[in-house]
Amino acid sequence: MPAFEAAQADRTIAAPSRLATARAVVEMFHFPPILMVLLACGTFATIAVDGSPPAGRLIPYLGAVLCSQMAIGVHNDYSDRALDGVAKPWRAIPSGVVSPTLALEISFALLVVALAIALPLGLDVAALGVIGTASGLAYNARLKGSVFAWVPFWAALPTLVIASFTVVHGYRSELMLTYVIGLPLVTSVYIADTMTDIFSDRALGVRGFVQRLGPAGARIVCWGALAFGYVLALAFWPSGGSPGVLFGLSIALLAIAVASDRLRIGRVHWMAIMLAVIALASDWLLDVAGG
């Protein structure tokens, strides 16, 4: 057997190391975007009460969000198992570390825990959580490869704003504007999140919204959508107020996102877009809370 073929055979039969196994399991939960969601929820809840939200409600709320987001992450890997088997064979399911059945069981268990934590916070909070979670699951199962892939993001992310206010302060009608202002913002977030896999997805026949745009088009729409979000935020700025420092920080983060993309610096682009949206939303919500 030629040396190359022998090496290939060795790689095929070799069991993954413990470190590789642990890494594959951890990656299945998609913690980087989860941390961004938790940061946003904690920030919005703090803004809602103009200070320190009650720990007895904030901690369970963040725990429910954590469990639901972990469930969505595992379900995402379950739904993408065929694509990952070609593009990312080291992941937990295609590598055999976690079976598809076990992945579904983990996801379901996390959903049950999330709902159990959320229900004592009120039916309204639990219902908002269900809307956001269902949106994520729908994205994984049906919409990810379609031109409507951005819709679950639009349904879920503004709902997190409303839930974060509701859990510590109560619902405010002005928050419904987050679905208007949020449309271009969540479109920008969705594109930034998807751009990292655009080449592998297109090679595997995925023809979703971002894949149809192509790399150049995706960049233009991502940055343009966020810029349009600034325009809408200004047009609907609450209480006759005006932007503060966070608005300027958001614009600076957009500039960092553009620069990092031009320099091809890993996932800095995605993180900068996420932080830019959180900063803009926080500045806008500060005036809602103060109104």
What distinguishing features does this structure have?
291 residues; mainly alpha; Four Helix Bundle (Hemerythrin (Met), subunit A); 13 helices
Q: Your description of this structure?
A:
It is a single chain. The chain folds into two domains: 18-169, Orthogonal Bundle (Tetracycline Repressor, domain 2); 172-291, Four Helix Bundle (Hemerythrin (Met), subunit A). Helix 3 (31-48) crosses helix 8 (151-168) and helix 4 packs parallel to helix 7 (123-143). It is 76% helix and 0% strand. Residues 1-13 have low confidence and may be disordered. By secondary structure, the chain is mostly helical. The protein has 13 helices and no strands. It has helices at 3-13, 18-27, 31-48, 55-79, 81-87, 100-118, 123-143, 151-168, 178-195, 198-203, 209-235, 245-263, 268-290.
